[in-house]
Amino acid sequence: xxxxxxxxxxxxxxxxxxxxxxxxxxxxxxxxxxxxxxxxxxxxxxxxxxxxxxxxxxxxxxxxxxxxxxxxxxxxxxxxxxxxxxxxxxxxxxxxxxxxxxxxxxxxxxxxxxxxxxxxxxxxxxxxxxxxxxxxxxxxxxxxxxxxxxxxxxxxxxxxxxxxxxxxxxxxxxxxxxxxxxxxxxxxxxxxxxxxxxxxxxxxxxxxxxxxxxxxxxxxxxxxxxxxxxxxxxxxxxxxxxxxxxxxxxxxxxxxxxxxxxxxxxxxxxxxxxxxxxxxxxxxxxxxxxxxxxxxxxxxxxxxxxxxxxxxxxxxxxxxxxxxxxxxxxxxxxxxxxxxxxxxxxxxxxxxxxxxxxxxxxxxxxxxxxxxxxxxxxxxxxxxxxxxxxxxxxxxxxxxxxxxxxxxxxxxxxxxxxxxxxxxxxxxxxxxxxxxxxxxxxxxxxxxxxxxxxxxxxxxxxxxx
Length: 465
Ligand SMILES: Cc1ncc(COP(=O)(O)O)c(C=O)c1O
Ligand SMILES: N[C@@H](CCOP(=O)(O)O)C(=O)O
What we know:
Blueprint: E1 3-5, H1 15-21, E2 30-32, H2 40-44, H3 51-63, H4 69-80, E3 91-95, E4 98-102, H5 112-130, E5 134-139, H6 143-152, E6 158-165, H7 171-178, E7 185-191, H8 194-206, H9 208-214, E8 216-218, H10 224-240, E9 248-253, H11 258-268, E10 273-280, H12 285-292, E11 294-296, H13 316-323, H14 328-341, E12 343-345, H15 348-357, E13 359-362, H16 365-379, H17 385-397, E14 404-408, H18 416-423, E15 444-447, H19 450-460
Parallel strand pairs: 4-14, 5-6, 5-8, 6-7, 7-15, 9-10, 9-14, 10-13
Antiparallel strand pairs: 1-2, 3-4, 11-12
The structure holds pyridoxal-5'-phosphate and the ligand N[C@@H](CCOP(=O)(O)O)C(=O)O.
């Protein structure tokens, strides 16, 4: 298994290099050269297996034989033992043909743990084998940061620097990033929004001398291994509702497009998914792009689902590349347009292919709040605002016989203020996080300037050559 860049000008890599590389050297994102195939019989055989076993079967083809089966099995078992639910990612029914897939039973209460706990262990393994260290950088609108810090805290081979938008994450999200006592953890509050943080991370990757000097590595969903790990729950959920003999629909609260792209990957691997529905909040750039064919950034609106307050949706590049028939020149042109003018037009054949692969809908803040109330009243289910965004879109799109599976991406306790305001219910942190809000915080506030961030990272990482 080799991996190619969406921009076509970076070397093809094997799995271990893709894992450590993050962004490709041409600024693109890596994708497998071909999609591994799971025939119906292999999908059927996943029914009833524990989550970790499904994970091993689904992910093994992506490793290209670079990590031996015994080591990978032990890493996967250890990863999912960190989850507080026996099913790891359980399904809960919330309506006649509607289910939520709870992805928030990991250590930091968001779906990011599913991939991040694995990524940290895989990176540790590869770095140890190579005798190397890495500087990990990540941008977060709130959840990736906490998950990454939990997963990498105390790991001897990496230092981790997480850039979050100052004052734009929930109080719980902030404490999950700023209260780690591990000396290899660095939380950086950037005076800007998530898109600024993500642009800084990408700029660090695009500065080759800096990248080499600090041995830069990334844990955002630009890293293929994140997407790979997220494909697993599409399989586990679909087979528990009858796949491959019964197609299902997935509705995904979307920001950086990583999670829904994992669903696309699962479909390309043979999982019968009837519809993949993008759910956006008021930052509806993806829904607008699919409707009108123009990807056009606007000012970010702060919402009650802050983790989706994104305009530059990184993984849309992977979807574009696929929809354009893997045309790296066309993908590069679109991305250059985005960088220069904040917009690009999707060529009609590419738009038609995107529309064949994805549907999209939007839930405004008010609609999300009333959905939270309605779901609680009718089903007794307390959804977080990101999940509720997708439930609203799922209900708008209902009508097919295929069950709708809504990805529940965060625990309501991560957003207690929005939950209380919408439902009058308290959303309490689980017992293992009691005391989080009283712990001492440690973070730096930095301007949204590349030099300032690079100086900060360069001076503190132990990986610098
Ligand atoms: C709780 C939550 N829901 C949804 C999303 C959107 O996921 P993605 O960025 O993979 O589209 C995020 C952020 O990534 C998130 O933290
Ligand atoms: N919503 C995300 C934004 C970053 O997404 P990623 O999946 O690319 O890491 C967050 O919570 O940080």
